[in-house]
């Protein structure tokens, strides 16, 4: 997958019809390369969540085009018959809270996605073990989510997002509940993972602590995106 | 693929176990109600089996002797013995009453029979059969009597010389067997005051006390105090005789009612305990509805407690059928726990019920299938709630 991880062109989203219609996204354009981490910043009500939901294929845009790797997945309509499979296999999600499944141990939380994709349990757990080691939580593999610290839970959530080696990860305020040190740690991990797995990562955030760590930032305001260079142009943490 | 339902159950096992126990007690009560009905039917069949009769001859136009009262003369059996196909015939009386054991009352069905004839208890668990003509009794162990105990019936005391088991009336009252003559007296004989009063009334009646007819008053009074009635005649047929033909002859020539074994079973099961069966049926329906409501409520609240996780599962690509399967398996797991607990407690507490409770394997199997069906239906509410969860709720605000 060369070129870009995800490209969005002229994406629009309107809720409702007629006089009561609200246009949440007017003209969104974004490109994120494989291995790149970009920030998406904007005030409340600017359309961040709507954009993330469109990118995550949980709501349908009104118009525009989205390309994942070499494949157009949306062009004024979904091009793929199975959006569930798209979310499972080609898009990773990291949420504000880790939202780990409380009744699965750490390994199975990560292995669940490959299992859902039809991979054998042994292979899925091997993959989970490798990711947990890479994220430095391998020693908590058999623990229950409730036994982990907030930072450990978020690392497990990142491992889960990477489990099916998706070309894109959407991270929705992944550092919100963490202190500065842990927040920067999570961003460092996202950068490492992006480089290691050639994953395009979009981080939606309000967090002033981590904004300076992005090489590129997209501002979203009134449903439109504006790109600006980040402060960490050459040396991301 | 790992079992999400199994992991969730293991994770919150105490909630499942305690809910399962609660549900199990309800299922145990349901199984016991079914067992009570089966026990009533079985009691009725045991009653018929133990009588040793092929035909029951009773008063015309009655459903006696168990479902309705019946009174026929005690010499009828002699004429029945002359009918073709009749091998043996014997008088019996049945009277449900309170008998005295010391200072306590015991509800029992007093059966009067002739020793060695149909109606005699077939087997004893202790003691011997009646050998004397008066004042001996054989009692069912459920009466609480022991060998040598004295039973007070009306004005006389009877000594328990034998004990039997599973000899109960269709109403579940244990039986006490006494000689026929004693039973006739207990059933039909009036108390002394009533006899004196009756004699005075008869003597004061100029039609019955005619000075010109000596001996008339004595004869009438003797007939009033003597008792020549029994409730039924039990008939055993000769080998090869058809019950329907003999019954038809009894009806045609003796102006009595005769019931075959199958007809008597129909009377007992379909008529005598029909109301009780409907009552139990209503209880079963109510208990099933309550069980369904409990399972539905528990599974629904457990599902609502996992809405965020379900949203995440849907967002990361879990199929609806996987989520529905998880909830369904949890509901059925609860049903399995409940059924095991219910069957166990029903088996443990059944012997302590005053009436016979018969827990049949077939009923247990049907109960298990019903529990599974109820749990499946009860889970639909939670499944609908889970399937309505929007995966988008996992993202943003």
From TrEMBL, chain B:
Domain named ABC3 transporter permease C-terminal: residues: 282-391
Tell me which GO cellular component terms the UniProt record holds. plasma membrane
| Pfam short name (any one) | FtsX
Keywords on record: Cell membrane, Membrane, Transmembrane, Transmembrane helix, Transport
Q: Which residues form the MacB-like periplasmic core domain?
A: 20-252
Q: Which InterPro entries does this UniProt record tie to the protein?
A: ABC-4/HrtB_transporter, ABC3_permease_C, MacB_PCD
Q: Which domain of life is it from?
A: Bacteria
Its topology with respect to the membrane?
Multi-pass membrane protein
According to the record, the segments passing through the membrane are: 16-37, 280-302, 323-352, 364-387
The primary site where this protein sits is membrane
Cell compartment(s), UniProt: Cell membrane
PANTHER family with a match to the protein in the record: ABC TRANSPORTER, MEMBRANE PROTEIN (PTHR43738), HEMIN TRANSPORT SYSTEM PERMEASE PROTEIN HRTB-RELATED (PTHR43738:SF1)
Q: What is this protein called?
A: ABC transporter permease
**Provenance organism:** Dechloromonas agitata
